[in-house]
Amino acid sequence: MNGSLDLVRNLVGDVKARLSGLDNGVEAVIIPPALYVESVKGLAGESLGVGVQNVSQWTSGAFTGEISADMAKDLGCDWALVGHSERRQYFGETDELVAAKVERVLQSGLQVVLCVGETLEDRERGEAETVVSSQVASGLAGVDEGQWSRVVVAYEPVWAIGTGKTATSEDAQSMHAEIRRVLAGMGAPSKQISVLYGGSVKADNAAALFAEPDIDGGLIGGASLIAEEFMSICRSMPASAKD
Q1: What's the pTM value of the predicted model, to 2 decimals?
Q2: Is 178 tagged catalytic?
Q3: Which of 6, 37, 57, 178 has the smallest number of Cβ neighbours within 10 A?
Q4: pLDDT at position 241 over 60
Q5: d(CA 163, CA 91)
Q6: Is 139 annotated as a binding residue?
């Protein structure tokens, strides 16, 4: 929940201009607060994807304040973020609710980024893989065979979000490999699904993270509010990466 019209104009314009000079094939998506989606979309053109940070589990009706996936699609969005750790933590979103939102997003024709991740307590109890695997399996349980091409998974260890702490590239790779194992067990084309890392990704740690074989990109938080920092992260993406 950051931003203003001035930030939108300056940040989107700056990122768009710098992105045109990249030759590594990186795909960049901006996911602003919903009030700024139309402004971002107008400035982004075709070079930047645009998404929403959250959608409702309902399609329409007497649910004041909610935003449906169909509305986001109508505004020209390409993506919707579902199950972010802050939605789970502060708004009590359960795995069942997240799964319902994933279904709404895919039914609307949007692409979905499903966020999963363990808390520090989960990790200290040795349950990190169990928690994340369960979130992946339940969140994507309703995905049909023809919808997998519109699914991205973002692993964001809760203890590393906004704290300055980052999982080591080896730890992140281990969890990403586990996520692919779960996806394969669900009948998904696991090697074709992008799995992103989110959790205090910065210019100085992005290259090491993106060099890992199962880390396809990043879900960038605070660093995305500074154009040069964000573009440094984009430049860290190997040319062979998918996202």
Answers
A1: 0.95
A2: no
A3: 6
A4: no
A5: 20
A6: no
